[in-house]
Amino acid sequence: MSHIVVIGAGQAGSSLTAKLRNSGFDGDITLIGAEDVPPYQRPPLSKAYLLGEMEKERLFLRPEQFYADQNIKLRLGAPVTSINRSANTVTVNGEILNYDQLALTTGSNPRHLPASIGGALHGVHVVRSLDDVDAMGADMAPGKRALIVGGGYIGLEAAAVASKMGLEVTVIEMADRILQRVAAPETSGYFRKLHTEHGVDIREGVGLDRLLGETHVSGARLTDGSQIHVDLVIVGVGITPGDALAANAGLTLNNGIETDAHGRTSDPNIWAAGDCASFPWQGGRIRLESVQNAIDQAELVAENMMGAGKEYVPMPWFWSDQYDVKLQIAGLNTGYDKIAVRHTGDAMSYWYYKGDKLLAVDAMNDPRNYMIGKRLIEAGKSPSADVVTDPDTDMKALLK
């Protein structure tokens, strides 16, 4: 009987194994996770869970019993130490497992601050795993002073939660503006104003020189020469693909684990999906870090492991919750040269264009226009920027 092993028990790994069973695969499935909890949602970790609004069990993507019911062997707290491609085996906790096909859904890893500048001090946190957020939550209390290093979505979400919990919050961003890598100046401006109104000190064009303290962080010296007192630090300076296991196995890497359009790696018996994998896109290569990609790509790989031969064409969407604002993003804004602004009451949306082509939409508390924009992008339709900006435009009619 065929045996499929999946390494990485996150959103992609859970989706892939469930899809295998739903698609009729009746062989053996083993899902291996380094953490000691079942696959869980990561986005709520730094929001509802950290705020105490969601219990740990509600984070789980599926009840643990689901895996037993579907005859999926779930091995938790057991990191894989090596892959032997010539023997088609993996080693986990000293045990050797055989596979017929292997899927790598090894996710991504947060970037840490170097120990040489204080990154190893107590009170310095990253936001990735359940353990990370549990440790962070233990340090957060009203009146404490938090430094957020990095003004991307992870950093700003952490800032919003810390502010809501009553901490004094400073965000530093080395680039000229927050969200510079991922969003237009208009979106940056919207969230700068939002955080400032909630008492967050946003410092742009300022980096971290080093953290101060003997064993626990007590301060920070910034690149502009200023020094601030802090009780905890949350580091949100990006993630790197979890490709170390693949690299050690000799698989081809290219901004993560390189796959073809079907999700197959340089080894015909090994596949990859989710944050760890890059794939062909519009004549180039891309790697997406999102729930949507983890689910859609993993499910496609599951079908292709059974011989479907489908190519992956992503339909990207993302979201971010900050205070009472829900940001919803459809599409990818890479290469945009024009922004159309649509303002409806308290709702706001920014529409990204490259020439006359609609690429992406950022919608703030505007689910209706987000959904219209998403459907337009997926259908390859591009209403003119002037039409989008006109407050009298019947946006729903653009879908016809």
TrEMBL record:
One of its GO terms (cellular component) is cytoplasm. GO terms for molecular function: dioxygenase activity; oxidoreductase activity, acting on NAD(P)H. Residues 317-399 form the Reductase C-terminal domain. The keyword Oxidoreductase applies. Coiled coil: none annotated. Its cofactor is FAD. InterPro entries: FAD-oxidoreductase/Apoptosis, FAD/NAD-bd_sf, FAD/NAD-binding_dom, FAD/NAD-linked_Rdtase_dimer_sf, Reductase_C. Keywords: Dioxygenase, FAD, Flavoprotein, Oxidoreductase. It comes from the Bacteria. Residues 3-298 form the FAD/NAD(P)-binding domain. Gene3D superfamilies: 3.30.390.30, FAD/NAD(P)-binding domain. This is 3-phenylpropionate/trans-cinnamate dioxygenase ferredoxin reductase subunit.
